[in-house]
């Protein structure tokens, strides 16, 4: 690590505003947001059904004032403290899409927007999918589930973008991870 990084770590962080779910922090000249609860980690779930359909969710996002297309996702440990990433991912998958998984594998963890937030996201591959309900989210969510054939998923996403939907940029990484390992080799 660079010595300049150590200098930035020595400056104490100050909470300048806190709401129910997020707080605004200042550390030296940096302003950023962090989660007030749940440890600042979210999971994005890469899920392909037995029919080779990729699961996407559509919902209105207040900060964007627009409908978005995303992969299923949610906070880790927001309901059950200490819940593992894998268990959280399967719970969120079922809640949002009506599909559950026999297995969840954490592929990587990294920052979502390192210049403005301390939040990190875990890309999780869900396998052994089976339909168990309708999905649609919890009582505060209005989620539409889309099961799109994997072979045409990228074209469908491009079409949705052309229709005015906001697309989560992580979608493209998720699509790539369906067919590749992190070192770039094709997944068997």
TrEMBL record:
Top-level taxon of the source organism: Bacteria
Keyword annotations of the record: Hydrolase
Reaction(s) catalysed (UniProt annotation): GDP-alpha-D-mannose + H2O = alpha-D-mannose 1-phosphate + GMP + 2 H(+)
Domain Nudix hydrolase: 38-171
Pfam family, one: NUDIX
Record has Hydrolase as a keyword: yes
Name of the featured protein: GDP-mannose pyrophosphatase
Organism (species): Pseudoxanthomonas japonensis
Assigned protein family: Belongs to the Nudix hydrolase family. NudK subfamily.
InterPro entries recorded: NUDIX_hydrolase-like_dom_sf, NUDIX_hydrolase_dom
Keyword match Amino-acid biosynthesis: no
Cofactors that this protein relies on: Mg(2+)
